[in-house]
């Protein structure tokens, strides 16, 4: 019984990473948009970094979901 509760608590804590990823994505895109509006000629040069930051942040959110699922079902 206690082990079952510990699994659910651990999975819930692991899912907090997905919320952090969502906040980070908002920050990444917000800062890109702010910089692109201030200097439109440099926006194209920063787009690759934007996509890389999006991919890394999204991967961290997916990894936290994977850890939660492993805690629940493994």
How is the topology of this model organized?
Layout: H1 2-14, H2 16-38, H3 43-73
Helix pairs in contact: 1-3, 2-3
Textual characterization of the structure:
This protein has helices at 2-14, 16-38, 43-73. The protein is mainly α and 74 residues long. It has one domain (2-73): Up-down Bundle (F1FO ATP Synthase). The longest helix has 31 residues, at 43-73. The model has no long low-confidence stretch (mean pLDDT 90).
Largest sheet: none
Name of the CATH architecture: Up-down Bundle
At CATH level 3, the topology is F1FO ATP Synthase
Mean pLDDT: 90
**H/E element order:** HHH
**Tally of discrete structural domains:** 1
Number of strands: 0
Rg result: 17 Å
User: How would you name the CATH homologous superfamily?
Assistant: F1F0 ATP synthase subunit C
Shape: elongated
Helix content: over 70%
- End-to-end Cα distance, whole Å, is 16 Å
Counted by DSSP, the helix tally is 3
Structural class: mainly alpha
Q: Which consecutive residue ranges, at least 5 long each, have pLDDT under 50?
A: none
| Name of the top-level CATH class | Mainly Alpha
Beta-strand fraction estimate: under 5%
Family: Belongs to the ATPase C chain family.
Transmembrane segments: 9-30, 50-73
Pfam family, one: ATP-synt_C
Domain V-ATPase proteolipid subunit C-like: 9-71
